[in-house]
Amino acid sequence: MKYITFAVPCYNSENYMEHCIETLLKGGNDVEIILINDGSKDNTGKIADEYAKKYPDIIKAVHKENGGHGSGVNKGLELATGLYYKVVDSDDWVDEESLKKVLKKIKDLEKENKLVDMMVVNYVYEREDGTKEINYKKTLPENKVFTWASVGHFKKDAYLLMHSVIYNTKFLKSTKIKLPEHTFYVDNIFVYYPLPKITTMYYLNVPFYRYFIGRTDQSVNESVMISRIDQQIFVTKTMIDFFDPYDYWEANKRCAKYLIHYIDIMMTVTTILLQVAHTKEADEKRKELWQYLKKKNRKLYKTCCLSLSGASCAPKFLSVPIYRLARKIYKFN
Question: At what angle do helices 253-277 and 280-296 cross, to 10 degrees?
Answer without folding.
Answer: 160
